[in-house]
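User: Please fill in residues for this 307-position structure.
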């Protein structure tokens, strides 16, 4: 993969190329398909502050592939992720897409179809290790890292490029490279034009829009509509009981709705239920996320009945 560090958008977008901008573009196509894809997605969500570090293992264990699934699994940051989902989509990638935060460029690259060979990324604020790893895993021919201003880590006569997944090469600008380093980098076609300091040339694409949608978080988390119906019955029973019950009683309810202990533990892990110790024993209460799931389900049922 040839990586180009530049300070200007291209005058024209090549065929089989995609632009990822922090200022304009269509909703971001984000649906990782590689085995390591969930790791890059979750790492990007943590790096950009969309989820807490403590939620990382929950999302990794669930093999989260997109933002709606992340909202379904994240016990605390789910509302933030619902908002993020309004700027993303899981249908098909556009040629010019808006990245709501810098590091989402990495999972976005992994989501692209194999025919895409070149990606232009507005990389201001991004972890370049994440972005270049994604480019390597996606099998890109070229990755253009575009900056509006010279990054702080870029000295007057230094540039940083990544040629392979396992290494970062720090070296002097083309005019100051030693013969040994020149020979090592010759396969990359590195030249003085690889990095260009010039007036930033902007590129105007479609304005970002929010695609408001209500997600069925339980369906995303548990997949099976049959199981979701049983879980809704359990949550509804808890709501009718005042929103809280002793854990012993709730565990007894599981068998009455044909659910397993594993399902209960996942409802707690994903933030739909909350366990709270009291002098009289463990109390389980319905959370705001659990109530949201009930509201969305109720609205869907009314919508279906009205059709």
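Assistant: Residues filled in for all 307 positions:
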């Amino acid at each position: 993969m040839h990586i180009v560090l530049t300070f200007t958008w291209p005058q024209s977008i090549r065929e089989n190329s995609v632009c990822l901008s922090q200022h304009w573009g269509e909703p971001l196509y984000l649906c990782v398909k590689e085995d390591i894809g969930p790791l890059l997605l979750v790492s990007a969500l943590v790096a950009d502050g969309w989820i807490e570090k403590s939620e990382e293992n929950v999302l990794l264990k669930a093999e989260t592939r997109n933002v709606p699934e992340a909202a379904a699994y994240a016990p605390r940051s789910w509302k933030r992720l619902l908002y993020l989902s309004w700027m993303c989509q899981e249908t098909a990638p556009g040629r010019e897409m808006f990245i709501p935060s810098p590091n989402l460029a990495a999972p976005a690259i992994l989501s692209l179809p194999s025919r895409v060979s070149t990606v232009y990324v507005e990389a201001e604020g991004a972890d370049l290790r994440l972005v270049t790893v994604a480019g390597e895993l996606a099998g890109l021919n070229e990755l253009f890292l575009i900056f509006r201003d010279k990054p702080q880590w870029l000295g007057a006569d230094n540039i940083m490029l990544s040629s392979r997944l396992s290494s970062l090469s720090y070296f002097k600008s083309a005019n100051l490279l030693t013969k040994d380093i020149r020979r090592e980098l010759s396969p990359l076609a590195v030249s003085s034009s690889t990095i260009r300091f010039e007036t930033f040339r902007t590129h105007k694409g479609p304005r970002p829009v929010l695609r408001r949608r209500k997600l069925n978080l339980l369906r995303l988390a548990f997949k099976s509509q049959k199981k979701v119906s049983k879980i809704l019955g359990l949550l509804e029973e808890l709501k009718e009981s005042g929103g809280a019950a002793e854990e012993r009683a709730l565990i007894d309810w599981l068998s009455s709705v044909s659910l397993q202990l594993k399902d209960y533990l996942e409802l707690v892990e994903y933030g739909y239920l909350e366990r709270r110790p009291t002098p009289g024993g463990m109390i389980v209460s319905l959370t705001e996320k659990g109530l949201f799931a009930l509201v969305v389900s109720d609205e869907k049922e009314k919508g279906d009945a009205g059709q």
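For context: Residues 288-306 form the longest helix (19 residues).
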